[in-house]
Amino acid sequence: MFYGLLRYKIVVLNFISAMVGVVLVVYVVYSARFKETSARFESESLNISTRLQHSFQASSLVLKALRPVFSGDRIPSYDDFISLTEPLIADIPGIKALEWIPRVKQSEVQSYVSAMNQQGFVGFDITERNHAGQLVGKSVRSEYYPVYYVVPFLGNAPAHGFDLASNNTRKSALKEASKSGKNIVSSRITLVQSQGDSFGFLIFCPVFSAPGDRIVPVSDKEEMLKGFTLGVFDFKLIIEKAMEGLNDPNVLVQLVDLSAKAGSQRLYASAHISNQDNDDDFFSFFNDGVEGFTNNQDFSFLGRQWRLKTVATSDYNGGFFSELLGVVCFSGLSFILMITYLTYRGVRAEIKRHELFLRSDSIINTVNDGIILTDKTGLICDFSPAAESIFGYLKGDVIGKHFTLFITQEYSGIYFSILTTVDKLLIEGRRYDFLGVKKHGESFPIECSVKAFSMDGSYHFTHVVRDISHRKAVEKAILAAKESADVANQAKSKFLANMSHEIRTPMTAIIGMTDLALETDLSLKQQHYLDVIQRSCMALLGIINEILDFSKIEANQLSIEKVTFVPEKVLENVADLMTNAVTKKEISFDIDLSPEVPQNLLGDPLRLSQVLINLTNNAVKFTDPLGEIRVSVDVQEDTVDAVVLCFSISDSGMGIAPEHQKQIFEPFLQSDTSITRQYGGTGLGLAISLRLVEMMGGSLGVESVLGEGSTFYFTARFGKPKLIKAPKQLSSLNTGVLTVLLMTDNIEFQKSLVKRLNNLGFKIDCVRSKSQASNKLELLEKVPFNLVLWDIEEWDRDTAALSSWCEKNHSRLRTTPILAMVKSDNYGRVRAVFSQVDPVKVMIRPRYSMTVKEDSSLRETLYRAVEHVSIDPPGEKIQDDVNDLSEAHVLLVEDNDINQEIVLAILEDKVLSVDVAGNGQEALDLLEEK
Q: Considering the domain 559-719 in this protein, what is its CATH number?
């Protein structure tokens, strides 16, 4: 018992010693904390006082800055005052308003009111407050000090026009400021601008007529006083802005006016205590602060003595004693709990790691794909049961061996390169196809996904291996089936391509026989039936041609030729083919060939024509009557031996919806199946055009707006022939620029013709009224025209006018030729009139819409007129290129009996005799006999 009591006393002594040590530690820490807190509080109090004094001084300087503005003879307008003060209000906090308070004598009231009304403040007047605090009209006084300018006006409107002299507090401040000539701050006020009880102060800055800051004698101050610049300031806004970043919620701030009478000294208090009902309660609250944590700072501001008092609440020390007691009471328990928690956490982590290991091991052992773990060099660290099944090795046999054991030698290099891309494998991993090797040497395809991870400070690799033998076999079977289908499809295409002649020949026979039948004597009904057959056959032949052309492309039996051709001729042929269709629908059809396009190209004109015809035919098909179609050709790229041309076919048709624009180039598809029956077609035209354009080294596209029209454009690459024969010219003048005087009263015809002549290289000068023509002829003496074009719309009136004009101006015209343009039905009569008039020649009036061929013919006609070469009338240039065959012996070589019959029927009564050969050998034999 004694030993136990002794051990207990030792425990008690140790406990007491520990407590004494803790108390000493607490005292030392508390003393240091108290000194630190006190010093921090003193520093914060001084910093607050300094900032407040600077803020108040800045408020005073604002008014001094405005004094020179009003000391001169010219008082700025309200707008000028706004421009001066708005930046100051924005930069300096606490300003509720900046005002100009003029000194207004009784006799000047009306002029001041009128001036303010003229500046837009209708109804302005000088006001004051009655005993009830309401704004009323001014009382009669010898002089007034109204708020004349106030910025900002919003929120300060009640103060506009208020007479400061009507308030005793402000009146006394005005008198004091005017006598001293210095800025004066008022006692606390309740702001007119505010709805509630908000304390603020006014600073009055007297303005005298003396310029600058020159001291005004006391005797002259009354007479020289012009008014006051006044600032209305809010204590709360100034103080809270100055204390930004310093405002500790446990430090209370009080600002009092020691110069004010009792009951009116409070200027500002922190939000925690600003709701005290009166100043006595307010001051008693401040005296309840923590002893030793108070601070008073007295300072003078514009003649008034103010005091800033800061007080720390009981929470300023942050509850230091409670915190210290908590440390003392729970330090031992916390230490024990910490050790227990850390031990528990370690054990719990170990249990979780063991559970995770068992779970991972279960996944690895049950997954069908083999999982192989290696180190950064590829040596095997783990080998799953599925991997054992795939490769035939046991785990113990492969641990420590290299992964390349499972792949063929040809893939070993690839695998080693994979291990060098650790950074990429850490992020996303890689998947590879290898040729694996089983334990007994059998090779088989495998898919291996490799992913890197970090473990124990080193990189490791996870390999997920899958036997893809079955998948490869399926892929091989699918590929074989695809190849078989491709072969069958190719055979079909070749069959159609080879059957081209066999399919077209019967159609040609039907069409030929129909033509022959139509030339015989038929009843109207029979002729109608044959017309229907002929049109249907032509439509069917077009469809067959498209299908056969597409089959040739699919069978690779269509090639692009390389021959020299003239692109202008290709466009002329397209225009000739489209003439009937566009004329029938009255469509404006224009072809614009850029002058930069070479005259001769090397390529396939037939396939180029096929593309242009397909696209132009579609444009005609889908363009309503009176619409427009334009074919343009420009140079996109030009090199020494090649040129890339850009063709565009624009129409004003129905357009193509955006969702249909991609599918129109697919075979057998049209943009809208609902209109297929209306417009017909196989849906192969664009697909064939696309393939042909690609074979010519270009691309085909479309731009379209639904309801507005479409533009199909394509590019094609052509070569440049080495030897180009120069075109035949009439003379050297044919290459120059001709100046032409055009006289017409038809404005639309003038626009059309001027545009075409400009494109052909002519310089045009126009006279809209033929009465002005004589004035234009005065230019002939200085800058003569090469040619005069006279439009004859009404042959009798205009012909007589032209004859009279030529007779009057014969001397001026000199040798200038005149071309009279007439309609075709008046050509003969007009030509007869001018047959004896030397300078006048007659030509057919050009159409509004002309083909490239017609443009070229017009150009040649104008040049021939300038060179005084005769102009052939219509029909005289047309020659019969077919000679008389009535005495001819014809050899017909044709292997089809029906075609032989058609040709013999055509040549019947046109030749002397016809010999028929069924093949080439028979033809040679007949030639030898003859």
A: 3.30.565.10
